[in-house]
Amino acid sequence: MLPPLYAQGNRKYEIGAKGSFRFSIGRERANNYNIDLFGGYKFNRHISAGVGVQYVDFGGTVLPGGIERVYVRTNNYRAFRPYVYGRYDILPSRKWTPFVAARLGFGIFAKSRLSYGVVFGYDDSDKEDFAYLKDLDHTLGIKGPVFASIDVGYSLQVGKRGSKFSFGFSLDMQPVRFEYNHHKEMRTRFSFGPTVGFTF
């Protein structure tokens, strides 16, 4: 038997959307933004869990060329990231409710393009030595293993049925494996930034 749709004036089920702009931390300097759609179940006034999918656009980055004195520059690369999530509302009886939430999922990346270049600092005559670069395979394969993120912030209750706006900050970790021209490079993207969302 399914649980009741409403309990104590609040929905037992929730659906929502959230957006974020994150600033990269550490070695990878390109920022990213993402949009989430999610749905879940409220086990009680404090605990919710469910599933969602996130569209994320990562800024481009520079990689080793796999050839001496050559570098690779990627375009922006994008992914859909399905995940499971859990959230804990610390003071659910208040209009402003602090919360902590976590996501765990994996990235499904589309193929992208890249460009080859000569390491900065050499004169123009070196470019002739590397003229063959334009004939290399410019396809960039991307694979994203498991990612994880944590959100902390506040929810603002609106209405009598549990709808709410949320404001907070998100810390995200996404390992990425780049594959290009018989070369592989593993990077981990760490990013941090503000989030805003609505749940009803």
Description:
There is one protein chain. The two termini are 23 Å apart. This protein is elongated. The strands form two sheets. The chain has an eight-stranded antiparallel β-barrel with strand order 3-4-5-8-9-11-12-13. A two-stranded antiparallel ribbon has the order 1-2. The chain has 200 residues and is mainly beta. It has one helix and 13 strands. The N terminus is likely disordered. Helices cover 2% and strands 68% of the residues. The chain has a domain of 135 residues: Porin.
Would you spell out the secondary-structure blueprint of this structure?
Blueprint: E1 6-7, E2 10-11, E3 13-25, E4 32-42, E5 47-58, E6 62-64, E7 70-74, E8 77-89, E9 96-109, E10 112-118, H1 125-129, E11 139-157, E12 164-180, E13 183-199
